[in-house]
Amino acid sequence: MSAPFGLISTAQHQSAQEQSSKQLFSLIAHPTFWTGLQFAFCIPSSKLFYWYTYWQRQRLVWWKRLSGQSSGFSVAESGRRASIERAFPWGHEIVEHIWTFETQRGQSWIVCNTSANVAAAVFLWDAFGGDRPVLALNNKLSPYKATIATTSTTLQPLAILLDIQLRKGRVMTYANPFLNSRATLEAQITQFDEMGICYTIILNENTQRTGVAYVRHRDTTIKEQIHVTDIRKRLSMYLQVPDACG
Question: How many domains does one find in the chain?
């Protein structure tokens, strides 16, 4: 295999047997059992500086893109070792290590090492950082992308049909357990925000007459009027999900 090429690996670790994750990573997450994530990139030694800088930048962008607090991340470099750090109220914590080494064959390796536990803890911390009780996860991290809310029993068949259509379009939906209850729209939306659901589709009496529903965004709380026949394609576009149904 000729350079450049990369290798990705995951491994389960136990702190009692190996170096503690508390020593390797941030104090924000150091369980007894943890999942290591590692990326190793092989390049000719003559191009080490370029690729070392490149991967520092790319890994920093990755953390910033998935976090709701992108300004809190920075890179600290010392020779052949670097770390990506996240600023917390109590100080800076390391969330990823990056280092290099050379082989006798004129090749160099760049290794990026982090933990799934640390990443999950950091993103959850950032998601709870707002003023409202909202789990503001990045769209790509939210388990459920959309749900459907209504207080009208006559609109329940439409809600179920729309849920099926969204799933066919690869939009992961949360089956609303309140469709057969007397829960108000406000109570439903509050719970969905706390669950981190990105979009809430609101069906009301006007939907029955015109076919137009409100699509509410979790973070902005803005409600957009969209015809029910266009919701699947519109959400697929917003979430950057390929529409399986064309």
Answer: 2
